[in-house]
C-alpha cells in the first residue's frame, strides 16, 4: 500500500479503522448503537455529542483521564512529545519525580493514549494528536472556569477584552518592546512566559511576597479576588502581567505562567499506576472458608426465619411504598439484629424474588410461591441463590434511613433504593479481593483508593453534604454485606465465592456443601420444659418444633421452650395430645420429662372446652360452673358478656377478640365453625400471586454481544459505502449532490438495472419503503422480472427483492468504487 494521508476529521479517522477496532469502539461506548448509525459520519457525530462524551469520560481510569486533561490544555493539535512533557514536566523539579515517576509515565502513556483512541476521544497521528472538541470544552479552562488540572485560561484568552493601552503598560513593566498591534502584544507576553531564561529573570526580580501569592495560585484554583487598592505584591504581579484581570474584582494566573511555575507539569501528582490493594491480615484459608460457611448457613436461616414470621401476611405497605420505620424495628427485634442489618435481609429476600406485595386492597408483604421452592433446596443451593441475587441487584439497602434529594426519608423496600452502579461496584470489589492470595484480608481504605483510581469521575453524592462519594459508600457496604452473607470469612474471600465468581453457582454449592453441618433428626428434651437442638434440624422436625415450642435462644445450639401458649398453638393447628406425645418420643434422644407430659395433657384437657362462634360472638360450654366463673371475673367486663342459656354466653366483640381475651384470662377456648366444628388454623397458608424478582435498573445501555457488534459494523460500513460511493453521474446538480437520492425515469431505471444484472455490476439506487422512509443503497442486481429486482444489497449484507416502482433512480458506480 502507498502512503496514507493523515485524517482531517474524526469521521476520516474512524473510516480508516478496521472492523475489529470499530467493534471495540461500540463495545466501549454502547450508547452509540442506539440506534445503529447509518454511516461513519453519523457515528462520528454521535460520538462527539456532549452526553456521550461525558459518559465516556466517566469510564476512564485516573491516568487516562489525566492524559485527556493534559491534551485539553495543550495546543491543538499537539505532538506526542508535548503531551509527554505536560505529564512528566521539563526536568526543573526534583530528580526523584523526573527519574522515578517520569519513567512510569512514559511506560503508561501509550496504553492511556490507546484507550482514548479506542473510545474515539482522541484521534490523529502521534505528530498531530487531537482531543475531540466536546471533550476539550469539558476539560479545558475558560476565562470563567479553571480546568480539572487547576490551570487557568491562556494569555490570549484572558486578554481578549483588554484595552491596547493596558497591554502596553504590561509590556513596558515586563521590559518588552512596545507594539501597537494587540496580537503582537499578546504573542510577546506569551513568549515571555514560555521562555525559561527570561521568565526566571522576571521572577528573580519579584518581591518575596509576590512569589508567595503565586505559590497559592499555581496549583489552582488560579483565580483570586483583589480590592480596588491591592497590596504592593499583588500590584506588582498585575502590572507585570502575571495576574490578568477577569473582572473588576477578579484576577487570574495565565496558563503559560502557571506551567512555568509548575516545571511544565499539567498535574501536581500524575498517577500512571493504580494503587495496590494492601493486606491487613493473612489468615489460614481453611479458617476463612469455615467462618464464611458458618455465616452462609446463618444467612440462609435468617432469611427463612424472616419469611416464616411473615407467613400469615407480613406488614402493611406504606402509601408511598416500602416498610414503615416501626415495622422495620419490629423485624429487627424479631431477628435480633440492628435495624440496618434487618433492612439488608429484607432487601435481599425481595431481590431474590422470595418476598413481594400481595396486591390486595389492604396491601401487605408476604412470601411468594418461589419461597416454597427455595425452602426445599439444600442449604448450599439456597445460599447460591441468595448470593447470585445480591451480586446482580441494584437495590442498595445501605441507603435505608437516609434521605433522597428532596429530603424525604428512604425506607426499606421503598421505590428509591435502586442504584445502577451497585452491581458493577460489587463485582469490582470482589474481583480485587479475588486477585489477592487466598486468606488475605484487604485494607478497606486501599480498596477505596483503587476504585477511585479506576473511575475518578463516577459516584456523585446522593445528597448534599456527603463527604464520601456513592461508589465508595457502596464499596464499604459491599465489604460489610459480604461478611454477613458468607461471601467472605474474617475479611478474606472464601473459596466457594471464588468459584461462584468464576465457574458458577453449581461449583460454589459443591465446595460449600461439605462445610455446612448436616441437619439433625433429634433434639434433647430437658426437665425444665426446654428442648436443645445441638445443631441445624431437618426441615419437618424444625417446622413441627417451631409450632409446639418457642425459640428461647439461638447460637451453635438452639434452645426451645414449651409453654401453655405454644402447646395450645400446636393444638389449634390440628395436633392432638397423642400426636404431640408421639412426636416428642420419636425425636428426643432423652426420655420425655414428666412435667412436659403433664403440660401437654393439661392444656389438651382444657383445649376446646369453651367454644367461640359468631353471634357478634358467643361462648358455649357444657360446664355451667365455668361460664359462671367467667361472668364473675372482672377481667371479662371489656368483653361485654351476657348469658343466653345455661351453657351459652353472648359477647359484643368479634370472635378473634373474644378468643384473645379469654386466653389472657387463662382459659383455652377453641374457635368453631357455623356447623359447630372446631376450626383448625394452619400456619404458612398466605402467599402472594406468582411474582418475578425485581429487575435490576441498568446503568446505561447493555454491552452488546459479538453477533450484534458484527452486524452493526457491517451495517455502518455498508451505509458508509452507499453515502460515499463514487458514481458515474452527470455534472453535479441538486439531484446528484452528495446525500441526495438519484432521480431517473422508469424506463431508464429498468434498462440500467437489466444491464447491471447481465454484466454483474453494482448500482447505486435511491429507495423509498412502504413507510415512506428514503434511503441510499448499493446493490448488485441478480434477476429482474415481474416488476421486481432481486439483488445482493451491500448495505444490508443480504439478498433482497425491491419493487421497481419504489426505486427513485439509479446510477452506475465508478470502476474503482468497489475495489
Describe the structure.
The protein has 819 residues and is an alpha+beta fold. The chain is 45% helix and 12% strand. The strands form 8 sheets. It has a 5-stranded mixed β-sheet, with helices on one face. A hairpin with a 7-residue loop joins strand 7 and strand 8 (365-367). The radius of gyration is 39 Å and the shape is extended.
In the predicted model, the low-confidence regions spanning at least 5 consecutive residues are 460-467, 730-736
Helix content: 40-55%
Biggest sheet architecture: 5 strands, mixed
Secondary-structure class: alpha+beta
* Strand residue content: 5-15%
Mean pLDDT: 85
Largest sheet, order of strands side by side? 18-19-17-16-20
Radius of gyration in whole Å, from Cα?
39 Å
Task: Tell me the span between the first and last alpha carbons.
Answer: 13 Å
Number of helices in the DSSP assignment: 33
Shape field: extended
Number of separate strands: 25
